[in-house]
């Protein structure tokens, strides 16, 4: 069965600090997709990144970076120089891949991030 | 291009009443998903459509729940005889399913409170 674990329920850091959100996943599929979504207080889930299981290259987008390690089944997310606007709940997620996939996403329970001014 | 929209944003109802939610996907997106999110949890898959066909339903979707997507455009999710346990955020997402990868884009959700 597929499962996503976000062990950090809540994190608080002071503005401008770096912060890493951990994500560990379980799947029996050999091909799959990993995602991160952001859910600000308004409630809407905002897509951040999708990563194919074949692509272990780390990715950087502005202050955001992602570290995908298949050997440890982890897909961690780092925010550099955090800002108050980064305060939100962040979800790591997983979906199967393949021709007949249904694309339903399995979400972790989320990490609530507080950036203190 | 407008995003996914959902209506209403909030719904308060009494136990036993029926409620219906609407989702308008991003235009030309052929897949539409419904998820439910309870407090402190991540969203959980309920059902999805490819065009007008409902292809899968989660075991979370009891007989009191029904979803439709007539003409493959907007979708409705109806809950009959609501129970307090139905209180949650109901999220809709859409994607363009092609031969390659696709990404689900979510709407703002409908928050249901059953008294």
Commentary on this structure:
- The complex is a heterodimer of chains A (117) and B (115).
- Helix content of chain A is 0%, strand content 52%.
- Chain A has no helices and twelve strands.
- In chain A, strands 2, 5, 6, 10, 11 and 12 form a six-stranded mixed beta sheet that branches. In chain A, strands 3-9-8-7 form a four-stranded antiparallel beta sheet, with no helix packed on it.
- In chain A, β8 (64-69) and β9 form a beta hairpin.
- Chain A is globular, with a radius of gyration of 14 Å.
- The mean pLDDT of chain A is 92.
- With 115 residues, chain B is mostly beta strands.
- In chain B, 35% of the residues are buried.
- The mean pLDDT of chain B is 92.
- The chains are: A mainly beta (117), B mainly beta (115).
- Chain A binds chain B through residues 4, 33, 35, 37, 42-47, 50, 52, 91, 93, 97, 102-110, and chain B through 31, 33, 35, 40-45, 48, 55-56, 89, 91, 93, 95, 97, 101-109, 111.
Strand and helix layout:
The complex is a heterodimer of chains A (117) and B (115).
Chain A: E1 3-5, E2 10-14, E3 19-21, E4 24-26, E5 32-39, E6 46-52, E7 59-61, E8 64-69, E9 74-79, E10 88-96, E11 106-107, E12 111-116
Parallel strand pairs in A: 2-12
Antiparallel strand pairs in A: 1-4, 3-9, 5-6, 5-10, 7-8, 8-9, 10-11, 10-12
Chain B: E1 5-7, E2 10-13, E3 19-24, E4 31-37, E5 44-50, E6 53-57, E7 65-68, E8 75-79, E9 88-95, E10 105-106, E11 110-114
Parallel strand pairs in B: 2-11
Antiparallel strand pairs in B: 1-3, 3-8, 4-5, 4-9, 5-6, 7-8, 9-10, 9-11
């Amino acid at each position: 069965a597929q499962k996503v674990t976000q062990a950090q329920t809540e994190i608080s850091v002071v503005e401008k600090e770096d912060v890493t959100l951990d994500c560990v996943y379980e799947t029996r599929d050999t091909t799959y997709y990993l995602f991160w979504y952001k859910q600000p207080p308004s409630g809407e889930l905002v897509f951040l990144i999708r990563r194919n299981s074949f692509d272990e290259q780390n990715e950087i987008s502005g202050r955001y970076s992602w570290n995908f390690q298949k050997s440890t089944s982890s897909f961690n997310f780092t925010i550099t120089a955090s800002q108050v606007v980064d305060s939100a709940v962040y979800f790591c997620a997983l979906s199967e891949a393949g021709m007949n996939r249904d694309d339903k996403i399995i979400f972790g329970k989320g990490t609530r991030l507080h950036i203190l001014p | 291009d407008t995003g996914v929209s959902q209506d209403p944003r909030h719904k308060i109802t009494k136990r036993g009443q029926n409620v219906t939610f609407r989702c308008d996907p991003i235009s030309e997106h052929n897949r539409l998903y419904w998820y439910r999110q309870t407090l402190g949890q991540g969203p959980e898959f309920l059902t999805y459509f490819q065009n007008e066909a409902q292809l899968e339903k989660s075991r979370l979707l009891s007989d009191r729940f029904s979803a439709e997507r007539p003409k493959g455009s907007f979708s409705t999710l109806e809950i009959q005889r609501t129970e307090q346990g139905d209180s949650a955020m109901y999220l809709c997402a859409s994607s363009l399913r092609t031969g390659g990868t696709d990404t689900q884009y979510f709407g703002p959700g409908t928050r249901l409170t059953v008294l």
